[in-house]
Amino acid sequence: MSSPASPLRRSFHLGCAAALLLSGCLSQSYEISAPELQRLVELAPEQRGEHVRVTQQTAFANDASDLPPEVDAADWALIIASQSSSDDEHHHHHHHDNDDDDDDAIDGSAEEALATALVAVAVAATVAVSVGVTEGARFDGWVQAPAEHPVLLVEPSGERRWARLGTLTPDLVRGVERAVLPDYAGDLERLERHPLDRAGFVYQLELGAEPAPFEGASLAFSGRAGLGFMPSQRYGFLLGAAFSSASAEATGAPLGPSTTLSFDHRVFLQAEAWPVAAGRLHLGPYGELGYAWARADDPLGTRTEEGWMLGAGAALQLDWTTRLALTVRAGAAWLPSVEFGTFRAFSDYRIAPTLTVGFSIY
Predict the structure, then answer these.
(1) Which of 174, 192, 210 is the last residue of a domain?
(2) Could you report the per-residue pLDDT of 276-294, keeping only the tens digit for each?
């Protein structure tokens, strides 16, 4: 049988590559959404910078990445003046353009399946930690800015225009997709962060333990991951996958005197809700419906079983930042299982209680 160690070593390099692609460094630019921009231009110019909702951009999505590391007041005046001189021509061109246009899942031994799972877990964990650290440090909330602070207006076509916060007008921001406040001179003052915002896509990764499915091992290592969408702050749906594995060297175990290994994995649709909140703590139920596979290696070979599965439980979340929460999940799943008797193996179902801890990134 192949060893899980070699795929695990290979997963390190794959995980590092995924981390570099997905995490990214944080930039010194802060994005203003189109609705927030519309709200700001309705205020008096001297009030616009008092409480501006922004989201810090990453180095891979920085609209002001072509600016030098240090920009002084004279540089800004030159940039904005040169941009303003071509605004009339740009608007004419802009309006003119608008007028124109699974079999493999059940093959192999439990040891081979475990090796594959270790690769997936290593990559998922690397990505989750990298993205989690980035999102944990990323500022999403309100800042205070001077009325004359430069602002970059970005249109859906990708064209950009410079202006100042206090000189914005409804006509100037009409059709703008977003705006950006660069902070190379340290003129922006961070106020408060926005509370946890679940609405949108969500990625979960959790690791934990559950009872082993055979004698000779007290606990099985387990992990779960999910990717989905939250239509609102209170509920959402995810496509998930989970696994558990246990081994034992049991001279008196039902499987014989050799090392035994079990591996269970499942895919499911998960629904979750968060109806209870107390400060930064949130509590809610979840349910799972999916399909599961069970494998066990014994001295005679590999035994397999598969079937539908159900799962349910509750989760406790701690608000960490606007997009990151720590999650503790306790539940149980009804899973197909390979049970071993003295002379034969037979199919059955078992209840598997599970406790996991991990990240939820929104």
Answers:
(1) 192
(2) 999 899 999 999 999 999 8
